[in-house]
């Protein structure tokens, strides 16, 4: 974890010309994207961050510089997959399902994994800007590590709550696909990134989800006794819905949620 954060800072500190080959082309399925804000071509307001986004599964992609970055990125992505798999098995059992039910039905073992490295420089007027707006994540589980500088807030009982970083720990957030597959039992977490005017914050996020071509909706076993709260949708299609909704203050889950009148 420490080595990956160190190498991530080294990547962001590379000259602009060296990072240019990884420039963001606007395609969320590009193997490697580096840029600023969230999606500048479609934004009214830009966000105070630089990012590196990498698709690390089912095919592993990663920058070849700085030296050693790709190797530690590969090791970390594989270790996180093991942790995610174990947690999803436990969640399956808590829902009354077989331990591998969600793993097998979602194609998890050949599923999508995205790594995002966010750098938030000191902001002269942090109360007037955001690092990232309020959103929930795609996928089943999101794993976060950070460089000891706080900035993550989660929505809890209608209020924004600081999640202060603990040394050598993983913060795990529930994603939209887990809310859908559990038919609402596991609620995805609204969160955002705030800024400060003193320290550079680095957060490293790994999102583990289904295979892109799999349709994800409430587990059929749960629907034997209850109505579905969500429609089924291919993960790749949901991914695109979520990218657009993050620019409009909408929740992507609302696009697949059945209304209470139905």
Automatic annotation (TrEMBL):
It comes from the Eukaryota. Pfam families: 2OG-FeII_Oxy. GO terms for molecular function: L-ascorbic acid binding; metal ion binding; oxidoreductase activity. Residues 110-210 form the Fe2OG dioxygenase domain. Keywords: Iron, Metal-binding, Oxidoreductase, Vitamin C. The keyword Metal-binding applies. The keyword Iron applies. Belongs to the iron/ascorbate-dependent oxidoreductase family. This is Fe2OG dioxygenase domain-containing protein.
């Amino acid at each position: 974890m420490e080595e990956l954060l160190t190498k991530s800072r080294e990547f962001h500190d590379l000259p602009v010309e060296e990072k240019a080959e990884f420039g963001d082309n606007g395609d969320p399925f590009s193997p490697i994207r580096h840029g600023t804000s969230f999606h500048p071509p479609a934004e009214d307001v830009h966000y105070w961050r630089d990012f590196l986004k990498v698709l690390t599964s089912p095919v592993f992609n990663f920058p070849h510089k700085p030296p050693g970055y790709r190797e530690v990125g590969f090791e970390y992505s594989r270790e996180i997959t093991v942790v995610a798999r174990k947690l999803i098995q436990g969640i399956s059992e808590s829902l009354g399902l077989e331990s591998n039910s969600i793993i097998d039905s979602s194609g998890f073992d050949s599923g999508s994994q995205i790594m995002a490295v966010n750098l938030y420089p000191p902001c002269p007027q942090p109360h007037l800007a955001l690092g990232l707006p309020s959103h929930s994540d795609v996928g089943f589980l999101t794993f976060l590590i950070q460089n000891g500088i706080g900035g993550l807030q989660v929505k809890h009982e209608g209020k924004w709550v600081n999640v202060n970083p603990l040394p050598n720990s993983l913060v795990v957030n529930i994603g939209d696909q887990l809310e859908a597959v559990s038919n609402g039992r596991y609620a995805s977490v609204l969160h955002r990134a705030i800024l400060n005017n003193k320290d550079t914050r680095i957060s490293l996020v790994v999102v583990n989800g289904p295979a892109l071509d799999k349709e994800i909706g409430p587990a059929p076993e749960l629907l034997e006794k209850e109505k579905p709260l969500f429609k089924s949708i291919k993960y790749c299609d949901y991914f695109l819905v979520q990218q657009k909704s993050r620019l409009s203050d909408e929740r992507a889950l609302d696009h697949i949620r059945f209304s209470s009148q139905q």
